[in-house]
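Q: How do we represent a protein-ligand complex in a form that can be generated token by token?
A: Start from the inputs.
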Amino acid sequence: MSKRPLIKIAKTAGFCFGVKRAVKLANEAPAKYSGCSISTLGPIIHNPQVVNQLAGKGVKPIGLDSIPDSGVAIVRSHGITRKLARKLDERSALKLVDATCPFVRRAQKIVAEMSRAGYQVIIIGEPEHPEVTGLISYGEPANTRVVSSVEDIPGDFFSSRKPSRIALLAQTTQSQQIYNEIAAALLTIKGELRCFNTICTATSDRQSEALQLAKECDCMIIIGGRNSANTNRLYELSRKCQADSYHIETVDELNPDWFADKQTIGISAGASTPQWLIDEVVRKLENGN
Ligand code: SF4
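Then emit the structure tokens for the protein with iron/sulfur cluster bound:
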């Protein structure tokens, strides 16, 4: 019988702090608000298995255009726009459970305070990402903008003779390298620059560990929703170092051919992958069931 490969599991695999908190709040809601209709404002996380499990308990995702007047609505970890938060506040019969990650909440407060104080607020991020649409809504439209690279910074920021006042922050899952490049470019502008490094290390730690594992192992399995951006990124990074990298959502997708003559298998998972999905994969690899 061939020897079973050694399995190395990333310590950072699976739920980050903010996602764990949001899923816990959603799981507790049916008992806490028994008899009420309970919904999440969009899928609570980018993992179909968790979303389906919650739906089985009566906690269902709804679109932002179909928010009910009563019952319980759960805000996911990305947060929501200021306009929507106010609209929800006006519905007195609707109980709001705010699962916005505290790190995202901190970034929202920075945008609001800096914008109100008259700074040009620059948010580094993906303009369409729900966390970013939420962040930008906390600033004044006239002085708050989103950039993805140095090229997105308006030319008049560099050419103006008047000293500027700029506040810089980032979507929590942005790359530190892009943040550093943009901060360095803004430092060349005359005036005041306030840098708030709002990048959450949960993402970068997970990526560094997966990269390290991909270098050490002869095969990598990345577990997580196909709709999860951070899982897809983890897979792309892993594939750069290890051609035998595979992205799966569930244990059923494991293919034994991938592991023939492999000695070490590395496992990591996106921030929205629950521990039970990781455990199922590990069990199958270790025991074959
Ligand atoms: S990645 Fe960081 S900021 Fe985003 S939800 Fe997780 S803990 Fe919060």
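The chain has three domains: 6-14+201-287, 17-101, 103-195. The first strand starts at residue 6 and ends at 9.
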